[in-house]
Amino acid sequence: MFDWKKLSDLENELGPIREQEEVCPGVYLLTVKDDDELLPRDYYAVMDGSIIPLKAKAYGQELFDLWLFPADCEECRIIKFEIAKYRTKNHLPLNESLRAVAYFGAQSFPKYFGMLPVPIQTSRGCTIRHWILDNGIYWIETDQCEEVLAVCYPVWSTELSDFAEHMGEQTEYDKTHDIESTLGYIFFPIDISCLPLYELLQERPEWEGTVIDKPALMNAIWDVVPEYAFQISKWEQSGKNDFISALLSEFGVKIEPNISNEHVIPIFQDAGKDFLLLK
């Protein structure tokens, strides 16, 4: 059981602890809920002497001789990985595969997990050279003298639209074994890579001018998928890209949408369509 003194100290700090469960030796999942709160809050509490290594504990908040990780914080991925590793070694059931936990952890914490691996096999042959655009996002040259953009599962499953995702290619292995289970990469041949790069650029503004020539990228989108460029620009000008105002309108709350030219895809007459600056 959880040490009573630590439990009392934590309640003074966090609020009433309604539930506690030891998920692996020395690691407890605590559920906290004040009477005036609608939803409970979960924390992982890592005790001194637990199976969690010191380098993992260092990502948490040290408090009352233990380490605390809010269950919704990014750093919690590290604790969930160590728990999953323990449960795998001891043949205990998992809510999510160890590989999936590690992949999503590596996306956020490459210093702890290492970089997401560069795929050896692509939809257009085997990798012979690669350039790193970001962790899990690689520009690849294959032994079939083709170039593809490779996007790892944690990135494409959370950042790419369905439209962009469906334009990507899978390896034959991922097609037959279900890419949602294999956690495989999807690949975009050079002629359609402008679309996923545009969407990935939204979370990586530092790419502009260093990895991507943005005006040339927009010209390429109009050339390859004009229907996408038209629809994105139309949605922005009508306010549909403002998620908050669109959501509130569903509940009958009318507010003026925030319209920004940042999300309109214009044509730049003198920019050309050669958008990749990395190589």
Question: What do you see in this structure?
Answer:
- With 279 residues, the protein is of the alpha+beta class.
- The protein has 2 domains: 110 residues, no CATH class; 143 residues, no CATH class.
- It has 13 helices and 10 strands.
- The strands form 2 sheets. The chain has a 5-stranded antiparallel beta sheet. A 5-stranded antiparallel beta sheet has the order 6-7-8-9-10.
- Strand 7 and strand 8 form a beta hairpin.
- Helix 3 packs antiparallel against helix 4 and helix 11 crosses helix 12.
- The protein is elongated, with a radius of gyration of 23 Å.
- The protein starts with a helix and ends in a 29-residue tail after the last helix.
Quick recap:
With 279 residues, this protein is of the alpha+beta class. It has helices spanning 4-14, 54-57, 76-89, 98-108, 110-113, 153-159, 162-167, 172-177, 179-182, 194-201, 214-224, 226-238, 243-250, and strands at residues 17-24, 27-32, 41-47, 61-63, 66-70, 121-122, 125-134, 137-142, 147-151, 186-189. Helix 3 packs antiparallel against helix 4 and helix 11 crosses helix 12.
